[in-house]
Amino acid sequence: MSRSEARAPPAMQNVTRLPAANSVPASRQPPPPTAEDEEDANSYDSDDATTLGMLEFSLLYEEEKNELHCNIIKAKGLKPMDSNGLADPYVKLHLLPGASKSNKLRTKTIRTTLNPVWNETLVYHGITNEDMQKKTLRLSVSDEDKFGHNEFIGETRVVLKKLKLNQKKTYNVCLERVIPDDEEGEERGRILISLTYNSQQSHLIVGVVRCAHLAAMDSNGYSDPFVKIHLKPDMGKKAKYKTQIKKKTLNPEFNEEFSYEVKLAELAKKTLDISVWDYDMGKSNDFIGGCQLGITAKGECLKHWYECLKNKDKKIERWHVLLNQNNIEADD
């Protein structure tokens, strides 16, 4: 297994995020699973049950691999959407809250049926225990229309903190009629960074490993991403580095390392700006997202920096969420 294969990308494989205001009232959400037996289906009553249909799926969170496996099994009795009295259904997954256009997964489309069978497993990578405590999985069923706008049929949601670690749980639920709002959000993908402080040479070694589920910036649905890092303040001309550009991808692998000569006591006072950009030939590059590591950071960004300072000569790798708040200076 290659080095990059050993680390799956974070949240999402196909590619996003809805506002908190779009959450479903508690009274309309499926109750948490209570049956221990995987075969016990979790169902609930719904006014729309007879018109929208049922969706059967299973979820498994593999803690060690940081993976959420979503097996979309089948649907039954879907609402007819086409003139022939049938539909061309597919299932789309969103992690809420999540990034716009960068954390959706979807199944293939099954043609001309109200009882589609997918048996398709979609995997979110880089899902941490913290994500499992905070996020909700939205599963929506839609009808694919070759000539117009795909039509929403119904949805259901699962609060992930209800899911037991490393135990597969099967659900069989009635679809609810919740009209999707315009999607928005701040998360623009994720980046895997390694930090090592070499105590013998007094160097900080920053590894830009890979990104996952970046927001698409180009009309072709992709980006041409590269990463900039900037250690500040007071590092002079050697403060900034750039990776190579990766063409037409939302999941680039860089595997590049950069070195800063800095004393450990000084490093504790510094901030590492990390920003991901979409390269545009002949035009200014588009900012995709960024994060900052340092003692003034919060959450995982602070934890990663602290672990690097504390564990000299040890490589520490962590995934970080990229936000679209550009407190990084404009691209140069």
Question: Could you explain the architecture of this structure?
Answer:
GO terms for molecular function: metal ion binding. One of its GO terms (biological process) is regulation of calcium ion-dependent exocytosis. InterPro entries: C2_dom, C2_domain_sf, Rabphilin/DOC2/Noc2, Rabphilin_Doc2_C2A, Synaptotagmin. There is one protein chain. This protein has 332 residues and is mainly β. Helix content is 9%, strand content 39%. It has helices at residues 3-6, 49-52, 129-134, 264-267, 299-310; strands spanning 54-62, 67-76, 89-96, 104-106, 117-125, 136-143, 151-159, 169-174, 187-198, 203-212, 225-232, 240-242, 253-261, 271-278, 286-294, 316-323. It has a four-stranded antiparallel β-sheet, with no helix packed on it. Strands 4-3-6-7 form a four-stranded antiparallel β-sheet. 39% of the residues are buried. The model is unreliable at 1-6, 9-49, 179-185 and 328-332 (pLDDT under 50).
Tell me the total number of β-strands.
16
Quickly give the CATH architecture of the largest domain: Sandwich
CATH hierarchy class name of the largest domain? Mainly Beta
Q: What is the C-alpha radius of gyration, as a whole number of Å? A: 22 Å
Helix count from the secondary structure assignment:
5
| CATH fold group of the largest domain | Immunoglobulin-like
CATH superfamily of the largest domain: C2 domain
Main-sheet strand order equals: 5-2-1-8
Q: How many discrete domains?
A: 2
What can be said about the biggest beta sheet?
Answer: 4 strands, antiparallel
Poorly predicted runs: 1-6, 9-49, 179-185, 328-332
How much beta, percentage-wise? 35-45%
Shape: elongated
Report the order of strands and helices.
HHEEEEEHEEEEEEEEHEEHE
How much is the average pLDDT?
79
Helix fraction bin:
under 10%
Summing up helix and strand content along with how strands pair, one would put the structural category as mainly beta
Kindly report how far apart the N and C termini lie.
Answer: 37 Å
Organism: Cyprinus carpio carpio
Biased composition (Acidic residues): 35-48
Keywords: Calcium, Metal-binding, Repeat
Pfam family, one: C2
